[in-house]
Amino acid sequence: MLYLMETITWIPLLTLLILCFMAREFLPRIDAEMVNCLDSDKEALMDFKTGLHDPENRLSSWKGSNCCQWQGISCNNTTGAVIAVDLHNPHGSSSSLSGSIPPLTFVNITSLVVLDLNLNTFNSKIPDWLVNISSVFTLDISNIDLFGRIPLGFGELPNLQFLNLAENDNLRGSCNKLLMGRWEKIEVVNLFPINYMGNFPVPLET
């Protein structure tokens, strides 16, 4: 069952999933201290940071060799692979990360399952690498001033379950073309109030 949301009602299950992966934000980082991150993941994250404007120095912990200990990063406790990147902004507009979303080769992070960039100010098109993360199942890029077309590749991500694009007023897309994707595991897509052509059935059987 695919729910295509036309209201900005928050999704409790999505929140729970993100909290589970982001538990390191509230609990001691015991596991993070026991595992080292992969060099390829660290390099990808450093490239990502380089392209950002960080006025409140929110990413000050992004240094050193073990990216599993960096703020907003969660790793697999066995392999050290990065599984979650949570850079959502809970502090207001003055703390927003800004600039265009850096065009890094994020395919280096092959185990990423959660990416949350909510409430920042990227003022960017959706970069191609976002639709190449085949492992991701929760993607929240809502309210970050995205513009341009919604990539059809989102519908081909084999593990994607939750896609939140809400409150990006300058995004646009064709419902008919988007729905031609496979959307193999999708459960929720939030597009409010994006300018799209056509009508989404709510809910849509898959």
What's the layout of helices and strands?
Blueprint: E1 3-5, H1 12-21, H2 30-34, H3 39-50, E2 73-75, E3 82-86, E4 114-116, E5 124-125, E6 138-140, E7 146-149, E8 162-164, E9 170-174, H4 175-178, E10 188-190, E11 195-197
Parallel strand pairs: 1-10, 3-4, 4-6, 5-7, 6-8, 7-9, 8-10, 9-11
Antiparallel strand pairs: 2-3
Task: Give me a quick take on this structure.
The chain is α/β, with parallel strands linked by helices. Helix content is 15%, strand content 18%.
CATH superfamily: Ribonuclease Inhibitor
List how many beta strands DSSP finds: 11
CATH architecture tag: Alpha-Beta Horseshoe
Figure out the total of helices.
4
Q: How far apart are the termini?
A: 6 Å
Within the CATH hierarchy, at the fold level, what is the topology? Leucine-rich repeat, LRR (right-handed beta-alpha superhelix)
Biggest sheet: strands, sense, closure? 7 strands, mixed
Mean pLDDT: 80
Rg over alpha carbons: 17 Å
Strand content: 15-25%
By CATH reckoning, the class would read Alpha Beta
- The sequence of SSEs as H and E is EHHHEEEEEEEEHEE
Question: Largest sheet, order of strands side by side?
Answer: 1-10-8-6-4-3-2
The oligomeric state is single chain
Shape: globular
As for the number of domains, it is: 1
Helix share bin: 10-25%
What would you call the structural class? alpha/beta
Low-pLDDT segments: 6-11, 22-30, 201-206
